[in-house]
Design a protein that fits this description.
The complex is a heterodimer of chains A (463) and B (198). Chain A is an alpha/beta fold. Chain A is built from 18 helices and 16 strands. Chain B has five helices and nine strands; from the N terminus they run βαβββαβββββααα. Chain B has a single domain (16-197), classed as Collagenase (Catalytic Domain). Chain B has helices at 26-40, 66-77, 129-147, 166-171, 178-197; strands spanning 16-21, 44-46, 57-58, 63-65, 83-88, 92-94, 97-100, 102-104, 110-114. The chains are: A alpha/beta (463), B alpha/beta (198).
Chain lengths: 463, 198
């Protein structure tokens, strides 16, 4: 056995509790005993149980009452109904209410051994199937992976189904953390190109000097270090979809190059004069206001029209608060499985905090908050104290929007280290783990200035 | 590398007793006492026979309640010896199982076993005396193993493997695997320390 299984024997007769628990303990399992359904439910709130053996006749809510409660609150726990007076009616009722088996006392020892082995194997298979199903859905990136039942999301799902089949370029707009890449994957998974690759590129994460060779590839000897030819991501995306994430970060030069590829359906590797066929469907995404960027001249209008044949807007989480409970439940299930923790649900007061929170980081922030709660929870049900830091007035996590893009985070971090070291470049470079030249370049690139120039140790070089 | 086994120190009498409940054959008692002494390496006392306590008889099932017998042994014999194994030729059951070959609580002071069903062969004929005694030793070791906190073993053919029928009982060996032996001696050593300080 890979882990100790946990059982509970619920019976008002002491002798039955003792006999059955002694038998189960000999298997090396952890066994709890309860003499009523109410006591069993209390224990279940504290601990996870694989299998419950429940007697039908008990004072209080009784065996069937407990069975119903367990199936409602802890659906992954298996329940075996036991009775001294087995009738067909009882057995049918037990199975109708979701019991996993029905035993009449006394049991044949061989039958009990087989039953327990069968139940534990069933449990293992259910867990494995759930895990594999999640992995397959995530791998295929279907619409199943996007969760939401709000009108805005239902409309978005409809639009995805309508536009996925076409070959037109799609621009996905939405705040950071709203799941733009998931939408792009869903479009790909529902398109005619679903058999081809889905190639995501985060335009903000690839350095300007590398992006050309990454996207178009290069020939051997085209520059120092090009010791062998390399396929670009456009080639890799052949017959599939190319996803340009953070397309607003793309340089004007690259916009021209990509525009040419989109118009001519041909491209050249760096250092090559041989044209190559480009056959991909372009999906782009940004959280930026591209119209503003066009107005200030940092984004080309012709490139914008080319990538924005169809545009989709992913609503931020605060505009679809009704989706928060189902998203939170989904994340609880996922992280409980991934981190192997026995957490089942979120109670009402905790859910209210989640629903009321503004979610500047959208679904990604919710995902992280729930992951933290699952990992730190000592109970099966997550309570309000796990999310107390999200409530107004609790300064643990600032509610204001923190920098979200990698570049914004970099700028904020460099600025704070420079301020801490009074703009002493050598000291700041040491803290940042880069050399002075690199730090000077970053300061120039991001046009960083001391907050209080009098205190600084340096004069910022002209750009 | 020479294999070293943890060995408990030699002890005075009174640690483990075998108690015949009703009339039990001398060869059965002797082989059980010898096997336990050989494997546990502690002296085993063979007690005078006692009748099965009448209140442990379940008239409706025509069987004796193993749980009730264990409770009786714990209440009446735990002052005489550290662990007591009762042996009977009567059929045993417990409130939830139709029959048991033996019964013990994990880490409990007493265990009970029955050889009532151990004669049965695959056909109508009983098994040989040799095979019967082999089964008796396996059940005795298994139940005493539970009193030293050994759970069911899931590796190989160790005597601590669960056996719910005679075929499963025959399939296992009449000794402990290396792991169970190690755990048993650790548990025995702890028990001896407690016994000495008591």
């Amino acid at each position: 056995m890979s882990r100790k299984h946990r059982f509970m024997v619920v019976d008002d007769e002491l002798i039955v509790r003792e006999s059955l628990s002694a038998w189960l303990e000999q298997e090396g399992s952890v066994v709890s005993k309860a003499e009523s359904g109410e006591e069993a439910l209390k224990l279940m709130e504290q601990n996870f149980y694989d299998v419950l053996f429940v007697d039908i006749k008990m004072p209080g809510i009784g065996g069937f009452g407990l069975l119903q409660k367990v199936k409602e609150l802890f659906p992954t726990t298996l329940v075996v109904i036991i009775t001294a007076y087995g009738t067909v009616d009882h057995a049918v009722e037990a199975l109708r209410l979701g019991a996993n088996d029905f035993l009449v006392k006394p049991f044949d020892p061989e039958g009990l051994g087989l039953l327990v082995a069968k139940l534990l194997e069933h449990r293992r298979l259910v867990e494995e199937t759930q895990y594999l199903r999640t992995e397959v859905t995530r791998y295929r990136g279907g619409l199943d992976e996007i969760i939401g039942s709000s009108p805005a999301m239902v409309e978005l799902f409809e639009t995805i189904r309508e536009v996925a089949g076409s070959e037109s370029s799609i621009l996905i707009l939405g705040e950071t953390g709203t799941g733009k890449e998931l939408i792009a994957r869903a479009i790909h998974a529902n398109s005619k190109r679903m058999g081809g690759p889905f190639v995501p590129i985060n335009c903000g994460a690839i350095p300007e000097s590398l992006i050309e060779s990454e996207i178009f590839g290069y020939e051997k000897g085209s520059f120092t270090g090009a010791v062998r030819p390399k396929r670009g991501l456009i080639e890799v995306a052949e017959d599939g979809s190319l996803f340009l994430d953070e397309v607003g970060e793309i340089t004007p030069k690259m916009q021209v190059d990509l525009l040419r590829v989109l118009q001519d359906k041909r491209f050249y590797r760096v250092g090559s004069v041989e044209p190559l066929r480009a056959d991909f469907r372009l999906i782009s995404a940004t959280h930026q206001d591209l119209h503003k960027k066009i107005a200030d001249g940092s984004f080309r209008q012709d490139f914008f029209y080319r990538i924005n044949v169809i545009s989709l807007r992913v609503p931020p989480l605060r505009e679809r608060r009704e989706d928060i409970p189902i998203l939170a439940k989904h994340f609880v299930k996922r992280f409980a499985m991934e981190t192997n923790r026995n957490v089942d649900s979120i109670d009402e007061s905790a859910m209210k905090i989640l629903v009321d929170y503004p979610w500047p980081g959208n679904v990604r922030e919710l995902e992280n908050v729930v992951e933290r709660a699952v990992v730190t929870s000592r109970k099966r049900i997550i309570t309000a104290d796990a999310f107390a830091y999200l409530m107004p007035g609790v300064p643990c996590v600032p509610v204001t929007a923190a920098p979200r893009s990698l570049q914004d985070a970099e700028v904020a971090h460099i600025r704070s280290v420079l301020e801490e070291s009074d703009w002493n470049i050598s000291r700041a470079a040491k803290v940042l783990g880069v050399d002075r030249t690199t730090l000077h370049k970053k300061i120039r690139k991001h046009d960083l200035q001391p907050a209080n120039p009098k205190n600084s140790d340096m004069t910022v070089p002209a750009k | 590398m020479t294999k070293r086994k943890t060995q408990p120190p030699a002890e005075k009498k009174g640690l483990l007793s075998v108690l015949p409940l009703g009339s039990v054959g001398q060869d059965i008692l002797r082989i059980v006492a010898d096997s336990l002494q050989g494997i546990l390496r502690i002296p085993v006392d063979l007690l005078e026979a006692e009748p099965l306590p009448p209140h442990t008889f379940m008239e409706a099932r025509n069987q004796y309640n193993a749980m009730a017998i264990i409770r009786f042994l714990s209440e009446n014999h735990s002052h005489n010896s550290f662990k007591t194994l009762g042996i009977t030729g009567k059929d045993l059951c417990n409130p939830i199982l139709t029959y048991v070959f033996g019964e013990a609580y994990m880490n409990g002071p007493s265990a009970v076993m029955s050889y009532h069903r151990l004669h049965q062969g695959q056909t109508e004929d009983p098994v040989s005396r040799e095979q019967f005694l082999d089964r008796v030793v396996k059940v005795a070791l298994h139940e005493i193993g539970h009193t030293f906190n050994l759970p069911h073993c899931h590796t190989g053919r160790c005597v601590m493997r669960a056996s719910n029928n005679l075929k499963e009982l025959d399939d296992k060996l009449n000794y402990l695997c290396d792991y169970c032996e190690l755990f048993l001696f650790e548990s025995l050593k702890k028990a001896l320390d407690v016994h000495r300080n008591a």
